[in-house]
Amino acid sequence: MLKDIERVLVSSEELQKITERLGKQISEDYKDKNLLLVSVLKGSISFMADLMRNITIPCQIDFMALSTYGSGTESSGRVRVNKDLDIYPEGYDILIVEDILDSGRTLEYIINNMLLPKNAKSVKICTLLDKPERRVANITADYVGTSVPNAFVVGYGLDFDEKYRNLPFIGELKKEVYSD
Ligand code: IMP
Ligand code: MG
Q1: What are the pocket residues of ligand 1 if the criterion is a CB atom closer than 6 Å to any ligand atom?
Q2: What DSSP character marks residue 97?
């Protein structure tokens, strides 16, 4: 697995610092709110697990699963809902926990079709990684772990073709792995 990684972009130590910083900020900002953390599966699993343990106020968690990418590295722009929330969003201050904000199409779809029509009280975005250069939809994150260059990244939950999710850091995938 390691031989397919060009370089480490965010180390385990940096990931830990990021989740501590964001957890502290979110705990402060949401202390009088009705916080529901919504993790977008599967990519945000590691981030969600670390972030929630750094949140010190009462909150609830739920999961949604969508697919946009298929097995390539370019977003198709189409979103398929594989799993919706168990908790009905009405009245909750929802914080979407995402692995990476790329074109922004996935989050745009979630917010406009799955959360706002069901009367969520507020909806904000917490993304571990931001690739601002790639944005197509009019979406900005409220909380960002760190920005990454326009390269395909894997690890800490993020995959290429369902692999590399178990790497404990974020790495840039070698181009020869996905372009042939
Ligand atoms: P968007 O709808 O284009 O913003 O795509 C968001 C989703 O695409 C993310 O939640 C990831 O699952 C996936 N994605 C985008 N860029 C990468 C990447 O560099 N590595 C792995 N997955 C990515
Ligand atoms: Mg993915």
Answers
A1: 43, 68-69, 75, 98-106, 152-154, 158
A2: E
